[in-house]
Amino acid sequence: EKIANFSSISTRKCISRMQLLVSPAAKEGKTHLHFEMRADQFEEIGENSNEGCGFIPYGILHKELEFQEHVSVLQVRIVSSSIGILKGMLMVKPDISAIQLPPTMKKVPPSLHPRGDSVYF
């Protein structure tokens, strides 16, 4: 319950959602990539033909996370007590300043007792 609100989902879904905490989302060779960011770098958006896909600003992807220029999409697992547990794709979108997350990416709601403002993915 410190990570996310697992009590709000069924036991069956709880088990599959916990697997997201140990399954890889992105690889570079055989190395799994992990990042820590601030919660204020994320925002929730509505669905508009982008089911399961969020958006990431060019500057965050290529400057802060230092991905190569040809990378335009990431498969991610996002974990934060203030956001919850999310899974899906992030595609580069110009002219935005925060990582945008639609509701279809959210697999477990945020913790009822969020701590800190760090987001891991």
Structure characteristics:
121 residues; four-stranded mixed sheet; 2 helices; 10 strands
Secondary structure class reads mainly beta
Helical residue percent?
10-25%
Distance between the termini: 19 Å
Q: What string, H for helix and E for strand, traces the elements in order?
A: HEEEEEHEEEEE
Task: Tell me the Rg in angstroms.
Answer: 14 Å
Number of helices: 2
Low-confidence stretches: none
Number of strands: 10
Mean pLDDT: 83
What is the makeup of the main sheet?
A: 4 strands, mixed
Beta-strand residue percentage? 25-35%
Report the principal-axis shape.
globular
Write a concise synopsis of the structure shown.
The protein is mainly β. Helix content is 13%, strand content 35%.
What does this protein look like?
By secondary structure, the protein is mainly β. The protein has 2 helices and 10 strands. The strands form 4 sheets. Strands 5, 6, 7 and 9 form a 4-stranded mixed sheet that branches. Strands 1-2 form a two-stranded antiparallel ribbon. A two-stranded antiparallel sheet has the order 3-10. The mean pLDDT is 83.
Question: How are the elements arranged and paired?
Answer:
Blueprint: H1 11-19, E1 27-28, E2 31-32, E3 36-38, E4 42-44, E5 53-57, H2 58-64, E6 73-80, E7 84-93, E8 99-101, E9 106-108, E10 118-120
Parallel strand pairs: 4-8, 5-7
Antiparallel strand pairs: 1-2, 3-10, 6-7, 7-9
